[in-house]
Amino acid sequence: MYHILYVPYSLQIYSVCLSSFSSFVEVYNALEIYRYIERIAVVSVNNDSIAFSSDEVIQWMHKIQEWNPKFFTLSHVPEKYRQAVSKFFRRVLIARMAESPDLASSYHRKLKEAYHTEEKLRDPEVVRRSKEHLIRLLDEIEDSLSKTYIAGEEFSMADRLSKTAYIAREEFSMADVMFIPVLARLALLNLEDEYINSRPNMAKYWSLVQQRPSYKKVIGRYFGGWRKYRTLAKTWCFIRLRNTLKKY
Which SUPFAM superfamilies does the protein's record reference (predicted)? Predict the structure, then answer.
């Protein structure tokens, strides 16, 4: 039985594992989903306030999606927690195969990927390449932010949000929408100092992005401050209950 003092750490581990292993049941390309949502927004609004992403934004979206966070994330999770969540997801996939015979081949493919992932995690070279890819991505974005970031001036929070340089220059774009979860993942892994705060412009960008209403509503309300533990508690209880009842 877990002691209550150790619950927060365990919960954080379970949540990180869930976010990584969830890619095993992903059916669609994330970038295409973002662009599909963007098309719906442009058509629905039908005015000049929303425009399609520029070529520069699309290029950044491709660069961000090229980094697969799975191996990097799981390499920072203690093996006993990783194995527990991996076993849970394998059982979920097997159950889904039985429930949806028409999708059985897709779930079977994901099940093979789950085993393949565990094998790759034993190879330090795979983890090293994933880490180096992330560092290159962060450095490239840091360099992009440094070219347009307004330095040496003081603004109110509202002004700073409107004047701060984003990934594709001065407007918040779909590239930022794709990149913010990368930083949120690093924060959840307690790697902010190593990967975010060590880059001055990235640190400013991350600090201001967290003040955006959209961030507070979508991510901050679940993982901001003490709310993180409430969300992680639900995650931990969900896994424990489903395992106990053997309902996958």
Answer: GST C-terminal domain-like (SSF47616)
CB < 8 Å & 24+ apart, contacts of 55-59: 56/168, 56/169, 57/167, 57/168, 57/173, 57/174, 57/175
Would you state the pLDDT for residue 148?
59
Given a contact cutoff of 8 angstroms between Cβ atoms, the answer to whether 242 and 207 are in contact is no
With 60 as the cut, is the pLDDT of residue 28 above it?
A: no
Buried-state track 63-86, b at ≥16 Cβ within 10 A, e below 16: bbeebebbbbbbbbbeeebbebbb
**Amino acid sitting at position 248:** Y
Are 34 and 174 in contact by the 8 Å Cβ rule? The answer is: yes
Q: For the whole model, what pTM was predicted?
A: 0.73
DSSP annotation string for 98-133: HH-GGGHHHHHHHHHHHHHHHHHTT-HHHHHHHHHH
For 210, the token pair is: 């967290």
CB-CB neighbours of 151 under 10 Å: 9
**CA 208, 65, 166 angle in degrees (round to 5)?**
25
